[in-house]
Specification:
By secondary structure, the chain is an alpha+beta fold. It is built from 22 helices and 23 strands.
Length: about 650
């Protein structure tokens, strides 16, 4: 495939070039005596051999240690370690305006902090301070299947949004580049930051990249304008794709089970178009012999010049813990690493390692790389838009736009919410955008599994309740658990999806015989005419039980109850348990309220009060509160639960 080389190859290997930092970074004469090494640590999604070698050649006393970590979890892992005092010396984050900023040192007084482009530097200021430096980034745009396009007579990439839609229409009519679901376009990495960047990118050629858009962005920064005045048309193209079924808005969420498998479908020819980076284009072409892929930029509806957009791959800062007494040598060395990064040679070495296509340094950076022909003119002519909105604002904007595409919210209402958050702030929204913790693997809610069997997500919820309430046994009715948690970062809004209800947790003292009644009641509606298991099924912590699955006209049968260590469960003994006020009759038991747990009734006057049950405490906390507390208490861990034998389902005559 034809490509254009932009800004060409270094004349000699950077990593061993003695003059690689000919201007001593930060003008620090200290190079070490060669007798000892100062270790500086950082996390990054890939190895950085060229950059490491350049740093250690420039400063022989430094041992730069890069630990690989998946980009999808870089924020969570980095912050998790910082919270526990085990953070890396160099902080890596993709959300510099998030809570991680509280762990970063001010770089404003460092000479290297002024080496970056003014626009990106200004956008990164937090309370007037420079806390992070932008790492090299990627150009982004549309990647399409050239082979399939040629089969429908499209021999050149689309030059307008109208031509783009015509290409999709023609391909769909021929059954090319389309799956059984009708989808033809998907965003390759559908995290909400990428979704927001894409939607913003569609407005660049006709607004954001033009004079009126530049003025709007400046006024917005000064709180003198609104999103409603600038982004009302940002869904024009996306809405047209959704209307024709070419784009599934359910893909644009963090629900992994709904996500379009972009890589597989691009390779097998059932996806015509994706939005991604130059790096993804290169990997596609390297992996596929059957199809050729090419790239084109964001297009105009009004005959304006096309644009590409770019964003730093991540941001780098200094761990505030390095300012503590006794860490002076590491602090000096970490600053020296950042000073090397802030030179053209340092940027070029980093780019060689990570395959980035753009530097944010103010000086020219010698890059050994190729820009696809479709984006080359944009880069050469300066039609490159750098997304500068704060990270949390991007997340909130994206979530609201997806809500519009899904038909859940009207555009005016969604933009009004974004403006309220941007102009006034909102503690509840801020919590939604806040990184709560990290999970080490998927814990899935699907096909009503929490209403009939033990699950990882059910075990997490009940352990969180039990720990918060400090009880012997905790129960969660399956109907109260409504979402999954996926490997990687967990935000406040994710916990709200898992446990969305406001019923509060109460602590009771009950006889073991009451617990047997509870478990039997939980099995009472496993089979219903609707085919959906009843929500009364009990997930447990601090207890194990088994039951025989329903078959034919025979209902489910409770078999055995034991304690977690396998010892017998004593029905005559008294236990402290945690349940919701809903199960205890706070909303009565009519119309299936309370899920039939009348043996726990301590609130309702329309049903007999429970015997052998004493209300000990009304915590005022919800299941969601318990989850939040659990992540905060275990913030030194990557959380993961899976079935471990708490609930055993016996089938047939086993």
């Amino acid at each position: 495939m034809k490509k254009i080389v932009i800004s060409l190859i270094l004349t000699c290997l950077i990593v061993f070039q003695a003059a690689g930092c000919s201007q001593n970074p930060q003008n620090d004469p200290s190079k070490g005596d060669g007798n000892s090494k100062v270790s500086v640590s950082m996390l990054y999604p890939m190895n950085l051999p060229n950059f490491e070698a350049l740093v250690e050649h420039t400063y022989p006393q430094i041992d730069l240690r890069v630990e690989r970590n998946a980009k999808a979890t870089i924020d969570g892992e980095s912050e998790r370690r910082l919270r526990t005092g085990h953070g890396s010396d160099l902080i890596t984050t993709t959300m510099p305006t998030g809570d991680v900023r509280s762990y970063a040192l001010d770089l404003s007084a460092q000479e290297f902090a002024s080496a970056y482009q003014a626009g990106i530097s200004q956008s990164l200021l937090i309370d007037g301070k420079t806390l992070f430096l932008p790492l090299p980034g990627q150009y982004s745009g549309y990647i399409y299947n050239v082979t399939l396009a040629n089969q429908i007579g499209v021999t050149e990439p689309p030059a307008s949004t109208g031509a783009l839609m015509s290409m999709l229409d023609e391909a769909a009519g021929r059954g090319l580049g389309i799956g059984s679901d009708g989808v033809m376009f998907a965003i390759e990495s559908a995290d909400m930051t990428n979704v927001s960047s894409y939607l913003i990118g569609t407005r660049v050629p006709d607004f954001l990249g033009r004079a009126d858009g530049v003025i709007w962005r400046e006024h917005l920064t000064n709180r003198e304008d609104s999103f409603a005045n600038g982004m009302a048309d940002c869904l024009n193209l996306s809405s047209a794709m959704v209307e024709k079924g070419y784009l599934d808005p359910a893909h644009l969420t963090n629900n992994r089970s709904n996500m379009t498998p972009v890589w597989d479908r691009m390779l097998n020819g059932t996806l015509m178009l994706t939005y991604s980076t130059v790096h993804f284009l290169d990997t596609l072409n390297a992996a596929c012999d059957q199809y050729e892929f090419a790239m084109f930029p964001f297009l105009s509806e009004e005959d304006n010049a096309p644009w590409t957009i770019a964003a730093p791959a991540a941001y780098l800062g200094l761990n505030a813990a390095l300012a503590e007494p006794g860490k002076e040598d590491v602090l000096r060395a970490a600053r020296q690493v950042l000073s090397v990064l802030s030179t053209p040679e340092g940027q070029a070495a980093f780019i060689r390692d990570c395959g980035a296509s753009q530097s944010y340094l103010a000086a020219d950076v010698p890059v050994s790389g190729e820009i696809p022909e479709g984006l080359a003119d944009c880069v050469l002519n300066g039609f490159v838009y750098n997304v500068k909105f704060p990270a949390k604002l991007l997340l909130y904007f994206g979530r609201n736009m997806v809500s519009v595409l899904s038909g859940e919210t009207q555009m005016a209402e969604a933009l009004s919410k974004v403006d309220h958050y941007f102009l006034s702030g909102d503690k509840e929204i801020e919590y939604d955008q806040t990184l709560i913790g990290v999970v080490a693997g998927d814990m899935i809610y699907e096909n009503y599994n929490v209403r009939r069997e033990e699950t990882g997500i059910g075990n997490l919820v009940t352990d969180a309740i039990r720990e918060m309430a400090e009880v012997d046994i905790a129960f969660a009715n399956g109907g109260s658990i409504r979402g999954s948690l996926y490997e990687g970062n967990v935000f406040g809004s994710d916990l709200d999806v898992v446990c969305p209800y406001g019923n509060t947790i109460v602590v009771l003292e009950v006889k073991g015989s009451v617990i047997r009644e509870m478990l039997a009641n939980g099995l009472d509606r496993l089979v219903q005419e609707s085919g959906i298991p009843g929500g009364r099924f009990l997930n447990v912590s601090g207890l194990c039980y088994s039951y025989r699955a329903p078959a034919g006209d025979r209902g489910a049968e409770l078999l055995e109850i034991t304690l977690p260590d396998g010892s017998p469960f004593d029905e005559s003994k008294t236990y402290r348990i945690a349940v919701t006020s809903y199960m205890c009759g706070a909303e009565g038991y009519l119309d299936n309220n309370g899920d039939g747990f009348t043996m726990l009734n301590v609130y309702s006057d329309t049903a007999p009060r429970a015997e052998g049950v004493t209300l000990l405490q009304e915590t005022g906390k919800t299941f969601g509160d318990a989850l939040q507390l659990y992540f905060r208490t275990h913030n030194g861990e990557a959380i993961f639960f899976e079935p471990e034998g708490r609930i055993k389902v016996v089938k047939g005559d086993e």
